[in-house]
Design brief:
Helix content is about 35%, strand content about 25%. It is of the alpha+beta class and about 140 residues long.
Length: about 140
């Protein structure tokens, strides 16, 4: 389970050091891909394979399924953290998320989001404003 926020820097080779708290869950490999709202998703390999398996059961005649597959798979890169817990964040994904040197790492339960810190702050402020509405979370029924 991934939770919490961390701010780390990319090195000159585009490598990101992942938090030590995440190391055990990511040692078997990770998949980085384009996320929603201009972030990068980082999935443990097993979680990405689970999602892939679910998507493969959906009908290819549904244009939403095709679009989601294009979104996730065409931008995906599989890798393994090195001994220092570093992964290379591909240049294309860094450009999509506008990540240059600093990275906000946010745990999202079964996956991780990588954000440009100022973009995270903007998004977080909007979320706070939306969450002030009593009905915002009510429809989730959790």
């Amino acid at each position: 389970m991934f939770f919490g926020r961390y701010e780390h820097s990319l090195d000159s080779k585009g490598r990101l050091t992942l938090p030590s708290e995440y190391a055990g869950d990511l040692a078997a490999g990770v998949v980085l891909t384009r996320g929603m709202e201009n972030c990068v998703y980082l999935f443990p390999k097993a979680e990405f394979e689970r999602i892939s398996g679910r998507l493969s059961t959906l009908s290819m005649t549904d244009s939403r399924v095709r679009k989601l597959k294009r979104w996730l798979f065409s931008n995906a890169q599989m890798t393994e953290p090195d001994r220092q817990r570093r992964v290379i964040v591909p240049q294309r994904l860094r450009e999509i998320a506008r990540i240059t040197d600093k990275v906000l790492i946010a745990g999202m339960d079964s996956y991780i989001e990588l954000w440009q810190p100022e973009a995270w702050d903007e998004h977080d402020l909007l979320l706070e404003q939306e969450a002030a509405d009593e009905d915002f979370f009510a429809s989730l029924a959790i």
